[in-house]
Write a structure and sequence with these properties.
heterodimer; A: alpha+beta; 8 strands; about 20% helix; globular; B: about 475 residues; alpha/beta; FAD/NAD(P)-binding domain; Arc Repressor Mutant, subunit A; 3 domains; 7-stranded mixed beta sheet; 5-stranded parallel beta sheet
Chain lengths: ~120, ~475
Amino acid sequence: MQRAPLRARFSASMRGGCSAVAFWKRSRHRATDLRIGKAVERPLPARVIVDGQPLSAFEGESVAAALLAAGVLYLRSSSRLGQPRGVFCAMGVCQECVVEVDGRTVPACLTPIRDGMEIYLRR
Amino acid sequence: MVETDLVVLGAGPAGVGAALAASRHGLRVALIDDAPVAGGQIYKAPPSSFTVDNPRALGAEHQRGARLRDELAASDVETYFGRTVWLVSRGFVLEAVGPGGLESFRSKSLILATGTFERVIPFPGWTLPGVIGLGAATLLLKSQQMLPGRRTVVAGAGPLLLAVAAGVLKGGGELVAVVDLNGAADALRVAPRLMGRPDLALQGMGWMARIRGAGVPVLSRHAVTEVRGEDRVREVRVTPVDGEWKPLPDRKTRVFETDVLAVGHGLVPATEVSRLLGVDHEYRADDGGWVATHDELFRTSLPGLYVAGDVAGIAGAKAAALRGELAGLAAAYDLGKVSRDDWPRATSTLRRRLHRAERFGSAMSRLMKLRPGLVGTITGDTVVCRCEDVSRGEIDDALDNGAGELNQLKAWTRCGMGPCQGRMCGEAVASLLAARVGNRDQVGQWTGRAPLRPVPMEILTGEFRYEEISLPPPAPR
């Protein structure tokens, strides 16, 4: 939790966060894993394969979230210019996060992880 | 084929409100959504495989969502989740792809509760992996219970800005900066309307206090003007803007190193079904943009077709639920299930509550209203249409050559022809057009086309042998 002494917090916010204290506070990483475990439990671990490589994930979370947590952001290349693309809207509208699962092209943000799933990125 | 009195499309607060009200008055109702459970985006549930140890830690919205799902389960509404509707015709017939393959629905009436999607006006680097919408960040935080990244910059306009920023802090992530297009004057202007919901106003103030207390830089009247990185976000550049959101390049640009940028410039009603059905629409800038024209009972220009919730104009979840209820009652009335005499009693308090809820919602919507200067962040080589890789330079060429309407520009540039069917680029393209020809309502909307969502061809065609297709003999002999 970010709880510096009140005086330091006050002065940091007054200076718009440019003070050394604010810099120190900001550079302390809190979460090592992106998954937040305070309110929910993920009881079912899952092992999936992404482009032939094993990846640990959890049953039911979206493929997009699992890849994000593993630091895989670059999911595919754009149609004409071949630029790197990844999750954008996370609700199945933008079609940027499409990956290949079971021979079908599906949006990663709407596809739940299942143990043993084989995922291919369309880079 | 499912035959029913009423189909409600979309199971967010509006759709569920409509389905419950119509069902209570004796209509047979089918509620369709592509998600696995009800809740829409705002009450999106965590995956069913997660166990919720501490429901209160998930927040008031989770409780509301859970209550909504319970009410639905206890009702006579027939639910069809996991169904992606790809075609809707007058009559009404809906074609969907479900877990078991193709499904068809036929109903006398149809309520569209399809909600909104997010608007992001492009800037250099906006397509890099690691740039996500504010809605996307909200979904990751609340539904997937995941931080968007180790370090996050949150930018844009509207109520989602503070909610995401606070969510990152609450989740234990590093909030690098909050970059707000709006300034203090904008917040003050809408303050009176916020008093209709003191609980939400206080919540917003609490978020701001937490953000400032953590020493996070909050930049008002600033926009993201560039994101840099090779194959993912590395740094975000932020520049002051004027009152119309136009970047002021001679003012100091600040640079923040980060993993993720969560950015959003308002919400837009999702009108693809009403466009496909060809009903009347009007452009209402204060409500989020194009909306199907409707009366005070949410009837559109096509008898039997209603709109409910944010798709009828941005007003928030509370108003959405009440609008849904009113639309459901209207559908029941129009099918003869509510008598003229019963009508006032059934609707009087509802309308009053709706008016109050809409007052708050309109304040939020005002903060998200797009200002014309923001297209100043779209440089010539910035990709505008993400699906087809069409840059601003190519759009400007088409405009120079006389393109004056949205579909004409689509035909000339391919903007809007890709898998997202213009949802992501539409607002930017229309704003660029409007800057040339005059007004947003003069440039038109994308013509509605099926399929409403990408559908695998093999699901539509099924299995067949070419010999089975009966072909007439060629003519003439």
